[in-house]
Structures
1.
Amino acid sequence: MPKMIPEPFRIKVVEPIKLVPRPEREKLLVEVGYNPFLIRSEHIYIDLLTDSGTSAMSDRQWAGIMEGDEAYAGCRNFFHLDETIRDIFGFNYFVPTHQGRAAEKILFSIALRAGQYVTNNMHFDTTQANIEAVGGRPVNLVIDEGLDPTSRHPFKGNLDLDKLTSFIEEVGAENIPLGMITVTNNSGGGQPVSMENIRGLKDVLAGYDIPFFIDACRFAENAHFIKQREPGYADKTILEIANEMFSYADGCTMSAKKDGLVNIGGFLAMNDEELYQSACNQLILWEGFPTYGGLAGRDLEAIARGLREALDESYLAYRVGQIEYLVGRLLEAQVPVVEPPGGHAVYLDVRRFLPHVLQSQFPAQALAAQLYLEGGVRGVEMGSVMFAHRDSETGRMVYPDLELVRLAIPRRVYTQTHLDYVAETIIELYQRRDRIQGMEIVYEAPFLRHFTARFKPVS
Ligand code: F0G
């Protein structure tokens, strides 16, 4: 038997892609101020900007699209999704939202007051920004191994429970209206969180009466890692593992654009009835009636079907196998990457890739731009552009521990040959890394600057 695992699907619809010639790529990069976010998708060859909303839907999901019930209130797809969320996540109530950040906005607008803290292993950028938008303070308490790209700890997404207890004691439980955990830890290399850690987190938070919410975007990938790596879980199904993960929580935010295998959608789920009522009020203001949120009936149906497909073990083995494969090819060529391979993306460790570029000169941005130039491949900067901030007390810039370029793999979209091409592009860049220079910012927005910032090479 061959050892490789081929894609567990065959391809029924194709979308042509093309590589624009290098001189044109060079011109385009200058035009967009070296920010790959601003390049048109038609000019990208392999698009690894995100795994969010970029999945290929299955034939069953597309069939579900035709079964969309577009009634304003009480559409049947809502009840199908309700049943699915109950089965997998087990919460009493949920509201659909147009995507994950809308669920975050609603949650923080009703549960958080200015000056209060929200703890997490590592907040994703939209979570951080939505907390700050209501005057709250996001706090990251990932274990130290989670900030060391070379540590091979099996659950580098774990939250440090001692740090959490000290933090609660320091600021007072009354100033922490909720504690969170992000599975998998996207900002820290797509690394999983163990069941033991989730259980321990619940115990600590419950001991102080602090509600516990899971940022559930990549829950199925996290459950797969628990099955593979945590003693006692090898014989459980992904559904059983997901059930247990969420049994410890009071609610979750979800971007169905990830493990819901859809192009748009999300939800906010919880057990508390009063919180649900408040969420409905905000939902009607910002998103829509509680049986559709910000979505069409057909979208709700695609999510209900996608959530189930994400639990399929052959799908998950292929999915996580793709990341392992790409990481393996890069390691063979000594390219520094975050290890062990995470769930949805390969992360280039730019501090080791470009040790000659200072963090103040945005090395990960420089590398992301070069990746496009070299092979028409689009990744995303996750370093000083996305996460550096000015300390409000000292006025000094604080740079993040991790300086990464993330290559997120869309679900069921690219084949192994595409990944080989990406590996070769990166290896070629690595061989000429000495010639890659840093960047300086010529324009930035007041928040979430990475989406629209413009750069030029340092002179
Ligand atoms: N939480 C996590 C962990 C995420 O990765 C994202 C989105 C969100 C929340 C927000 O969800 O995009 O549906 O509003 N991550 C995408 C990414 C954008 O590229 O990693 P959303």
2.
Amino acid sequence: SLTLSVMFTSLLNVRQAISIERQLIDLLETYIEHESERLEDIKRFYAKVSDLHSEVYSGPSASMANPLVAFTLIKRLQSEWVNLVYSNEAQENTQALRSGYEEVEEEEGYFPKLEDLQGAAKGLMRLQDVYSLQVGSLVRGQFKRINNGNLIDIYSPIISIPLSGDDCFLVGKVAYEQEDYYHSVQWLEESVRLFRGAGGEWSPENEGTLEDALDHLAFSHFKTGNVSYALSLSQELLNYDPMNRRVSKNIEMYERLLVEYPPLPSAHTELKRPKTTYLRTRNTYERLCQTQGTQPRHYENPRLFCDYFTNDSPGLLLQPIRREVLSLQPYVVLYHRFISDSEAKSIQDVAQTGLRRSVVASGEKQATAEYRISKSAWLKETAHPIIGRLDQRITMLTGLNVQPPYAEYLQVVNYGIGGHYEPHFDHATSASSPLFRLNTGNRVATFMIYLSSVDAGGSTAFIHANFSVPVVENAALFWWNLHKNGQGDGDTLHAGCPVLVGDKWVANKWIHEYGQEFQRRCSPNPEE
Ligand code: OGA
Ligand code: FE2
């Protein structure tokens, strides 16, 4: 249906997928029971008939004279064998399994599609890249980073889930189909290793085989210039599949190439990661996702301080907020314990049914994008009494008017596998942006509340300011997006790092320029 959205963009849908699989397990259990009964019946018939042959028919001919022996023998040959051999029971059992499966697939709006699988595979590769994860350890279910030749654990899962040769084949194939041989080589290498280790054991659930993995791996190596390796993999493949003409032709071509252009012994080309649009800031972005940048040294700067803050609001006098000034240019502060556990949970619950794949401004329109992978919902004040209370609290803290149309509705975001938001500005950078539709100017400030913790990853990184904020559950991050003259502040370029492990939820309140004139001029923005 049209409301279907992509599963991998939100962890919530992973939970729904778990309940889908539970239904399939029940179906399979029934199927196994019926098939076992069927096989038991066949074995009983087999035992009965073969016993007759060893005990009665091979005995003295006197027993053959028994009319009952003759009758039952003829009856079996005339009727029983036919019934057994042409029984429909196996098909009926399979049919019941299939129609049960199809029912689940049709009824469940969250049944994953090919697109979801590909998205999840891309999510894994994104995590591999951004956190410099070693593929070999990932395949063993561990999260380790290569650092100057050493492997360091960056997260230790309670249960490690190793990947199979077929799992790796799938990830490698997704990369291969995008002509991304940097990733396809690494994942298919693991796939071939695991398939070889399984000794060519066939599993009915697998999509690929050792031959398929060798085929894709050989071609990936050829595309990246490693012809001699492509040749030896193809020769191995031909051993398993001697009649494969395409492979024999490739082998001829590789041999010819090696004669015409013999590889230099020193020529070892390091494979490069495929380019992305954000290449310019990619290194800084990834470093900030892996570390906090300059953030841990903030205590050395007396102008970056912590205090109990009331903003002279009567409503905060008895319960000041813990304020942590993180950066002066751009001006970024973190308000600790802004929201309570139960409020955060309620907002997640209210948002759940409204979650849709997040979009970004694309010219005058909005569109989904690889650089923003999450699901989001917009909550009006009427959606739950908590929303209005949060609006009031934001106003008390910032002095800003957050009533529509001076601010947007609350946007609740849930990130999925490898979910992220690559470096971007929250404010509009072109006059035709859909953000101007409210007719209240640009997004002057961002108030972002962390509604959850995460187990690893998911920091908010400020690229030019060289720091990142790890997810602090129940805290809120505030910054000005515009200079006081209304121009966009380029230093606010920021990103949501990919979530490595966990279920990250944030809520954004975007406050617009109009209706804020007094606060805008008089509130701190020390560098201006
Ligand atoms: C955003 C954003 C950062 C984060 O939603 O615009 O920048 O850490 N999010 O989720
Ligand atoms: Fe943002």
3.
Amino acid sequence: MKTLLSANAIQQSVASLAAQIERDYEGQPLTIVGVLTGSLMILADLIRHIDMPLRVGLIQASSYRGRTTESDSLQIGARMLTDLAGRHVLLVDDIFDTGRTLAAVLEELGHENVASLRTAVFLWKEGRQVVDILPDYHCFKIPNVFVVGYGLDYDDEFRNLPFVAELEESER
Ligand code: IMP
Ligand code: MG
């Protein structure tokens, strides 16, 4: 596997994202909602860097099934959320690929009475989008390759890697 982003580079980028979020949401009631399962690494690292009161929620969305690297049906699953009414909600996901997942979760949470709704993604895969929304925050833009690590999986494995690597066709 070829390392694309080192653990060090990731930690620096997540810390600077946290600083930006602190500045933008200072004094506001913030709820950070992680999209399971891929966001678990960035979620845990990001929130421990944010030095202000906040709430954390989780929502499950799955698009990739088993060993396939192309998404088929998208499902929104369990919601572990406290009341979002009046809250500034920041949705956090692992990767902005086709964008269908973020668009669907945004639509889902848009029905709540939120004060604002924005998105942050760890990775933004260029040239793949089929939706007309863009993430408000991101850590890295990457080319159109299949990556694993730092929350991202292939067949539910590799999420635990502290770095991001490219998984080539022959390795799948
Ligand atoms: P989207 O709905 O097409 O934007 O895809 C979102 C989901 O697809 C992500 O949350 C990931 O779980 C998965 N995904 C997209 N690209 C990759 C990748 O390169 N590696 C691992 N998972 C990916
Ligand atoms: Mg996945």
